[in-house]
Amino acid sequence: MPTKQPSLLTQDSPSKDLPYREWFFCFCENSERLSFIKRWFTRNDPDNLKHCYAFTQVGDYLLFVEPDNDKIEFTIKYPTKEYPKLDAIVAALELTEAGHTVVCHQYIPCIRGYKSLFNFIPSCVTVVKCATGYASLAITPKKLLHNLIKDGAYLFLNTEK
Known about the structure:
Largest sheet: 6 strands, antiparallel
Number of helices: 4
Structural class: alpha+beta
Number of strands: 6
Shape: globular
Radius of gyration: 16 Å
Strand order of the largest sheet: 4-3-2-1-5-6
């Protein structure tokens, strides 16, 4: 019989009255073969905006949502002897140095309403939107990036240290 585990995401909430979450959305090249539909939708997008994933700080851990063509991985990065303290901002800067586009956004999660109209389309964007609770009409990584920046997300630059 499975045991019920409490959610990690509520452990470090500052207040129950303000359910804001901070997520880091990452955009990069897609290393896998894209389906015809995804290639068609992203035909005019830059190569570094063909795939997206997200992560958030949960206490001392980092929780990653990494969609793939055939699976969705929810990965928890634990502190180690080499890295005793994991910090989401440091991870975001390291990913930026590796060529990824990273934005940080703090918002109240909600996927109800008209902004979630296209969440039935199977793609990395819809998986990330559903997992993070970010409501948007975006169906491509480029459009998701534009919506996040328009909504006030912070864009990490490669020159930051």
